[in-house]
Amino acid sequence: MALHLVYGGTFDPIHNGHLAIACAARDALACTVHLMPTGDPPHRAPPGADGATRATMVALAIDGVPGLVLDRRELERQGRSYTVDTLAELRSEIGPSTPLAWLVGADSLLGLPGWHRWRDLFGLAHLVIAERPGSALDAELPAELAAALQNRWTREAADLQSQPAGRVLRLHQPLSHVSATAIRAQLSAGVPTGGQLPPAVAAFIHEKGLYGAAARAPL
Ligand code: ATP
Question: Which residues form the signal peptide (predicted)?
């Protein structure tokens, strides 16, 4: 059965670094990538753009890109969405034997022990780790993370197709230094963002004046 691959993120805004790793995972694993923007944090204003706006930017970014689709489920849920709950919901939809995988950047992997019920993730899905500048996977991982990952690492994409969950694959894609935090700072300072954003996303941001961006500022 085809691997179901989810790429969750704030996407505030989605940028070319996100698109590059989504496409690299799609190609390495020969599957569709489901981009899933996080919902808004309950009881406080979203830090950047709200969920509906972030999802609109994801839709603009992937328009016409084969193998990338938008999954809005975390935006439609009330209250806080934990990854473990989202994966459990997906698991119940696709059944026990369809392979399921969650794509994250290396910086997110290092923070995994802080995630709600993080050890349960491995029973629900595979992890696909995209390398990110500044987050060295080769450096020593925190002991509890290293122990949890031991015996799960694989270099073979086929291992993610032949088992439903529990393996960890390192994605070797060209490194991208693009960062949403840096892009937001550039937009609010009126600094051109160059080729970091998909053109339709950059145009939308300027049209709506998101992140303090000036209308019709240089892209
Ligand atoms: P920031 O740039 O402020 O750290 P972010 O882009 O990492 O924000 P998210 O939108 O939540 O924030 O990122 C979604 C996922 O994409 C995360 O797992 C993150 O690690 C990964 N990611 C984002 N940018 C890159 C990149 N340039 N290379 C590899 N992974 C990335």
Answer: none
Tell whether ligand 1 has an atom less than 6 A from the beta carbon of residue 207.
no
CATH number at residue 161: 3.40.50.620
pLDDT-derived band at 214 (thresholds 50, 70, 90) equals confident
Tell me the two tokens of residue 12: 């505030």
Under 8 Å between Cβ of 70 and 35: yes
Residue 219's pLDDT is 54
* Ligand 1 center–CA 105 separation, angstroms: 6
Domain tally for the chain?
1
153 within a domain of the structure (yes/no) = yes
121 within 8 A of 115, measured Cβ to Cβ: yes
In testing the pocket of ligand 1, which one of 6, 7, 10 has its CB within 8 Å of the most ligand atoms?
10
Residue 37 maps to a domain: yes
Ligand 1 centroid, distance to 31 Cα (angstroms): 21
For ligand 1, is residue 108 a contact (CB within 6 Å)? yes
* 130-178 confidence digits (pLDDT tens): 988 877 777 778 899 999 999 999 999 999 999 999 999 999 888 899 9
Residue 196 included in any domain: no
Residue nearest ligand 1's atom 23 by CA? 18
* Alpha-carbon gap, residue 47 to 54, rounded angstroms: 12
DSSP 176: -
Residue 218: its pLDDT value, please? 53
Domain span at residue 68 reads: 4-177
Q: What are phi and psi of 103, to 5 degrees?
A: -95, 130
Task: Please tell me whether the interface predicted TM-score (ipTM) of this complex is above 0.90.
Answer: yes
Residue 56 lies in a domain: yes
